[in-house]
Amino acid sequence: MSLKLTSTALLASCLVAACVGAQPAESALWTPDGRLLINHGGATLATGTAALFEAGWAGHDAGMDSSVPATGATRSLKIATGRGEVKVSATASAVAGGAKLAYRFTPPGEVPVNSVHVAWNLPASAWIGATWESGDKRGTLPATLGETGLFGAKGTALALTTTGGVKLSFVAEEPVNFLIQDDRQWGVQNFTVRVIGLLGDGVAWRDPLALAFTVTGQPALELVVDEPVTLKAGPDWVELPVSVDLEPGSALDFRPLGLLDAPAGKHGWVQAVGDRLEFTGQPGRAVKLYGINFCFSALYLDHALADKVADRLAMTGYNTLRIHHYESNLVRGDAADSLTFDADKLDRLDYFVAALAKRGIYVTTDLFVSRPIREAETVDGGRGMDDYKTAVLVSDKARANLKAFARAFLGHVNPYTGKALANDPALCSLSLVNEGAAGNFLGRMSGEVRRLFAERFNAWLVKRYGTRATLAAAWGDKLAADQDPAKGTVPLPRDLQGKVGADCAAFLAEVHLAFYEDMKQFLRTDLKCPAPLTDINAWTENWPNQALRAKFDYVDNHAYWDHPQFLEGDWRLPSRGWSGGGSATVATNPLHVDRAITQVLDRPFGFSEYNYANPNSYRAESGPLTGAYAALQGWDAVWRFAYSHDQGNLAAPKASNYFDMATDPNLLASDRFAALLFLRDVAPARNTVSLGARSADILTGSSYLPDGLASGLGQLGRISLVSRLGCRIDSAGAKGELALPLKGGAIDPRGKDAVEKVLAALRAGGNLPAGNPTDVAKGLYVSDTGQLRIEGQAGLFTVDTPGCQAIFSAHGQPGATSVMSLGASKSTIGVFAASLSAEPVARAPRLLLAHVPDVQASGRRFAEHALLTLQAWGDLPLLVRDVRTEITLKLVEPARYMVFALALSGARLGEVKATVRDGALVFEASSRREDKGVLYYEITRG
Question: What are the tens digits of pLDDT across the range 57-106?
Fold first, then answer.
């Protein structure tokens, strides 16, 4: 291959490989923010980033320094530290087979560091089994997690070769420190290689540091210098006409499928019965809920628009809605308290709730999300949104205010239903405080709130340990000489690490349980509200919190893929996704994987916030991944965040934003199938794997978890790709369940090889079918039902059920299910087909098929062609990537079927040519039709 330094403006079609799955030549992509992306065969093999560890191992990556204009291949970067910003100048230049990288790190003064380096992230799915060599040292990157540190030594060269023969070599002119690390210990599926220019243990770094080396590949790499890109209609993108309304009776109208049972509440209250939800009027029949979040002004619609939106939601198949971030619009800003409501806003919300209930859509909410608290309503340190969440746990004053709000909000009689929400069975559940786990805010507590927590913590320590000497023996050198719980002088820790953190986690769980029981008594007795209750729905996860959750009526949690990370200021551009802009399919890490184990198996489970955020180019995977695996796990309720934050999005088309499906046809298409898969099509797992513990043990704190395990829930998440996974607190496992004690069992659920051992146990017990091909080393997981299959290396996820066939191909590779197959596409594509009747797909008289490439906005600007760093949102018209895919459907009597392209409203645009080949229906789905975008197809039998 010829080697050249070139602008990505000339190679746009092959430089989006890292995010959109095109098939490029081998390339080393030098991004505007100073990262080098090594691409091979449509996937990213390695990503290099300048970085450092401060003393204490606080890690920081370099980001773009926007105050310094980029020149050629030189990048001006900065690394934030506790001592100020480290300035980094980085240059890439072409050499035979790859690139030479030269960095100059300049500290702002003295900065104590452990390491200054360039870190290379290597996806485990591509590198498992690879060999490495440095000097006379050699080794293999293991299939299963063992030692974290795989290699570390000083030298001038390090080479790694994949099992497929692809080789990367790092060569320095002067000796540097090389390190190879297995990051899977922390739940991420990566290996890391570090090329280290400065290594020490809190070494005082003052002088500029130069670090230079080459990175080359076999096959040879072509260095490509990236540059910002602004999207516009043309050969790669086509305008996508948008409609906010749906056409009744069209293929996008799911109401005939019976997913809703109107009006909401007709069968009595939703109640928690064992591990599922039921209606009081239909005992023994499980209730499943799938819906969306509405926030801010989107909840306060005029009556006519409220009816239109309620119809729209019912047509999409949603049977529940979460009222979220509602208080700031509802509370009068000119009132002295936060309990006085705006009469017009209250009327609008009342009408919307009634309109939803009329159509069979249940509502849920939290008693506190973001209400603007007045100073007189709380204590010092407890007024801000997150501060109030902690204040209500320990302050009588703040909690009295929360109860007063609950009484005013839930006790208000809705004139359109004639019922207060507290007494309306259309209220399917209730959370106390949104994302209110005290561990979320431990390090930021201040004022009277922190004093009250510290006072209670000291009393808890006295009750637990009795004397200072006993506490000192338990904590070792963590208890200072002047600290004595009897004197109230032990400070509240600022994290949950180690023995002190384990005790603090147990303490916080007990504080929170007292809060929950008090609020439950208030809601049941004062307000006569029987709705199922939950709390602590994100983010701190530990075993004491699981003991707490086991006391709730049901368990709830949240998770996000590529939630925005803001590079220069909160909630302003530029931003980049937390998950790196990649695909959860490729990473074999759908959102449920990290949350499945938080399910308490004798309680219902809800997922009241999730999203795969825009502008991630792979987000079409989000609906099928979540709907399918939530059904496999036996979850009971799921709410996507969010349908809309703004009523303007509901009345007219708008350009898309991070979360709102109302503005994003890609997410809307994906979510239609999430609803079908969860409510109708995917079977629950045949097997259950449970982690068991006694709450009495968990809540003993450091005596049970002395090694700091308070901050984690183990490594078993990927078992949820195969079978049901959760925990049992103070309860025995069901017959046939693979029960793993948290401590002392034959399999250590926290062990580095836990996933492999559990799979082996399932196979040995005959729980997995003999032909189940799950292979951890290959990143291949097939559900024990056989319906769900995820292949990380190929970037494929498939769902194969009678009522729905789904294929997501991250790299545009061909894929197949029993009924549907796809040819290769030039880019990422999701193709999802569903029967619009009780008949299976193969015999259904009417089918809906979605062909979903990436969707962005005109004028949207990214820092690079891989569409990772968002610099400007752009505006209408929306654009859909031009993708064509041959689709084959094995239908009974295929010659009788016709295919029609659909507008986003569901209206037919015209017939699409289809043929019969080898007894199957074949047609080309194209996102471009007469120079306008298309996502949907209707397939009907004549």
Answer: 889 999 888 788 777 899 999 999 999 999 999 999 999 999 999 999 99
Q: Strand, coil or helix: what is 857?
A: strand
The Cα-based distances of 340 to 364, 412, 699, 832, 901 in angstroms read: 22, 12, 40, 47, 51
Nearest to 681 by CA among 537, 816, 804: 804
Predicted confidence (pLDDT) per residue in 463-502, tens digit: 999 999 999 999 988 899 999 999 999 999 988 888 888 8
* CA angle (594 as vertex; 545, 181 as ends), nearest 5: 110
C-alpha closest to that of 660 among 638, 642, 674? 642
d(CA 393, CA 537): 15
Cβ–Cβ under 8 Å, residues 595 and 605: no
Please name which of 226, 72, 12 lies closest in space to residue 863, comparing C-alpha atoms.
Answer: 226
pLDDT for 269-285, tens place per residue?
999 999 999 999 999 99
Residue 261 has pLDDT above 70, yes or no: yes
Measure the CA–CA gap between 406 and 522, rounded to whole angstroms: 10
Task: Give CA–CA dist 615/602, Å, rounded.
Answer: 38
Which DSSP state fits 23? -
d(CA 874, CA 901): 27
Q: At residue 3, does pLDDT exceed 70?
A: no
Instruction: Give me the mean pLDDT over the 276-299 stretch.
Output: 97
The DSSP code for 854 is -
User: Distance between the two ends of the chain, CA-based, in angstroms?
Assistant: 53
Distance CA 889, CA 817 (A): 10
Length of the chain: 942
> Is residue 142 helix, strand or coil?
coil
Predicted confidence at residue 662, as pLDDT, reads: 96
* Residue in 787, 810, 436, 781 with CA at minimum distance from that of residue 612: 810
Name which residue leads in pLDDT, 700 or 802.
Answer: 802
For residue 25, the tally of other CB atoms under 10 A from its CB is 18
Beta strand segments in 96-207, E: 98-106, 111-123, 131-134, 137-140, 149-161, 167-182, 190-205
Name the residue among 688, 741, 750, 744 with its Cα closest to residue 713: 750
In degrees and rounded to multiples of 5, residue 940 shows phi and psi of -125, 150
Give the C-alpha separation, 123 to 44, whole Å. 8
CA 244 vs CA 211, 250, 297, 614, 654: distances in Å:
54, 14, 17, 18, 9
Q: Cα–Cα distance between 407 and 404 in angstroms, integer? A: 5
Question: Does the reported pTM lie above 0.85?
Answer: yes
**pLDDT of res. 187:** 66
**How is 372-430 classified by DSSP, letter by letter?**
---GGGS-TT--SHHHHHHHHHH-HHHHHHHHHHHHHHHSSEETTTTEEGGG-TTEEEE
Q: Give the other-Cβ count within 10 Å of 202's Cβ.
A: 12
Where residue 707 falls among pLDDT bands split at 50, 70, 90? low
- DSSP codes of every residue in 197-252: EEEEEEEEE-S-EEEEEEEEEESPPEEEE---EE--SSSSEEEE---SS--TTSTT
Spatial neighbors of 395 by CB under 8 A, at least 6 apart, are: 378, 379, 382, 448, 449, 452
Strands 575-577 and 869-872: antiparallel
Q: Give the CA distances from residue 55 to residues 52, 189, 578, 754, in Å, rounded to whole numbers and listed in that order.
A: 10, 26, 24, 32
Coil, helix or strand for 263?
A: coil
Total Cβ atoms within 10 A of residue 404:
14
